[in-house]
Amino acid sequence: MEVTLRKKADSAASMGLPQPVLALCPNSKATINCDKCRVRALSLCDALGPSELVELDRMATTISVGAKATLFEQDQPCEWVYNITAGSVRLYKLLPDGRRQVVGFALPGDFLGLSMSEKNAFSADALTPTNACRFSRNDYSNFLDEKPHLLRRLHSMASHELSLAQDQMVILGRRTAEERVAAFLIGLRNRWTRVNGNHVHVPLPMTRQDIGDFLGLTVETVSRLMTRLAREKAIVIVPDGVRLLDVARLERLAEI
Amino acid sequence: MEVTLRKKADSAASMGLPQPVLALCPNSKATINCDKCRVRALSLCDALGPSELVELDRMATTISVGAKATLFEQDQPCEWVYNITAGSVRLYKLLPDGRRQVVGFALPGDFLGLSMSEKNAFSADALTPTNACRFSRNDYSNFLDEKPHLLRRLHSMASHELSLAQDQMVILGRRTAEERVAAFLIGLRNRWTRVNGNHVHVPLPMTRQDIGDFLGLTVETVSRLMTRLAREKAIVIVPDGVRLLDVARLERLAEI
DNA sequence: CGTTGGGTTGATCGACCTCAATAAAAGTGG
DNA sequence: CCACTTTTATTGAGGTCGATCAACCCAACG
């Protein structure tokens, strides 16, 4: 597993490492890097004042990992929490017989470590080169004890996650394959909007298999439905993503 | 909708109302009723000290509703939060075309109102005569602001819910009908254990349709699989529930 | 006693899965 | 830069699990 660590205050050129998708938390200064963090407004840290950010910054380590690197594994003790600053991460649970359920994808601004449990409830690995701010779970927990407003923010993020999980339950339990794919594309478009602004181009850093394992379908079914939506001019399949042509049609499929 | 309200401090005989499954928060004294609450140890309130309990008690109204009563509805403004003290509640989302996904069942000790959102994410109605402590969302939110340890408890409950929701995603996305039914029975057994202690008798206050809508199956499939499990001596179907005969077999089905 | 809501059972159907082959893309090492 | 492998995506043919449609039972209840 290829991982680069650097204490934020260290000055180290980024060398030949896999380039992050976004250049965040620049590592060449001894000043507060959170200042320049592009995802701060989206993430947990937005609940903090300037002096608190300094404290947080001292606790943080930025990490850069290449595609396929594992951030943490299901059932292992939870040592760290992460704030994703660039890239994309797959979150999944494995059944003993190898069946897999992807429970979510983390994008820049997403926080991994809402769970408050001793063991990781799922595994996480990078889909693309990924940057994150990492905190030891202890530091983070102590920090939380002193900052009730941060806890409130955290709780509100957890509630939001819960609500997304319930929406996913509807998708998995009661929707057809075509509706699932449409809901997935619209949902992902909405999430990218927070990071990149609203575009009809939706990057898909995950494989068809990942999408299938997220939607409770097989690769083949996902592939067939994507090509069908493309044939019917609802989308265009482009390298590493799709372009949405008939957003209204997709939204109708997703909501009804 | 048949609802009985009484300020806890009021003294009112319970009359001919649908009898609650457990007699909780007795209503005949002007003293602190939380003292005697059988579900306190299970619920949010357990995070509070004696003097805080007095405060909480003052904010609370106990409500008793009959079977089929609606506690709140999806997309309506969220006015109240509830602590279920007796009975059972169905939580569900409806699609515009009538398809339904049950996102959970609330049992005594469960808290409804983790979500922190302005609108209800789902509807809730009583499966059996149900008692609850009800708080106005405002009071509750203010109270929360003054009690960080309560917020912590709340957050930990929300995390737990999130984790259950993710388990449910695995069930809905990647398990066979038989595994779903087994997982449902084992899961419900475990939840009743917190309330009643561990018994092989598992009460099923919900209909087969409700179970189907929870598991992403039809009534017929649920019925067929329950009778199959009964024929194969894994369970016995009894009025209002099942008796588990071969717990090991069911657990194997549920976990593998 | 008719009515109603829940539960069970059977026959048939179809949406999605499985298996298989091929194509396209992305690495990898010379 | 090009052969070669590996991974990912697509497409087709056929099978299956659970859905659908329909009948019936039973208990509760006015």
What does this structure look like?
Two copies of one chain form a homodimer. With 256 residues, the first copy, chain A, is of the alpha+beta class. The first copy, chain A, folds into two domains: 3-164, Jelly Rolls; 175-254, Winged helix-like DNA-binding domain superfamily/Winged helix DNA-binding domain (Arc Repressor Mutant, subunit A, Orthogonal Bundle). Chain A contains seven helices and twelve strands. Chain A has helices spanning 50-59, 137-146, 148-174, 177-196, 208-215, 219-231, 247-255; strands at residues 3-7, 61-65, 70-72, 80-86, 89-94, 100-106, 111-112, 123-126, 130-136, 201-203, 235-238, 241-244. In chain A, the strands form three sheets. In chain A, strands 1-2-9-4-7 form a five-stranded antiparallel β-sheet. In chain A, strands 3-8-5-6 form a four-stranded antiparallel β-sheet. In chain A, a hairpin with a 2-residue loop joins β11 and β12 (241-244). In chain A, α4 crosses α7 (247-255). The radius of gyration of chain A is 19 Å and the shape is globular. Mean pLDDT of chain A is 88; it is low at 8-31. Chain A binds chain B through residues 93, 95-97, 99-101, 103, 114-117, 121-122, 145, 148, 151-152, 154-156, 158-163, 165-166, 168-170, 172-175, 213-216, 255-256, and chain B through 93, 95-97, 99-101, 103, 114-117, 121-122, 145, 148, 151-152, 154-156, 158-163, 165-166, 168-170, 172-175, 213-216, 255-256. The structure holds a DNA duplex (30 and 30 nucleotides).
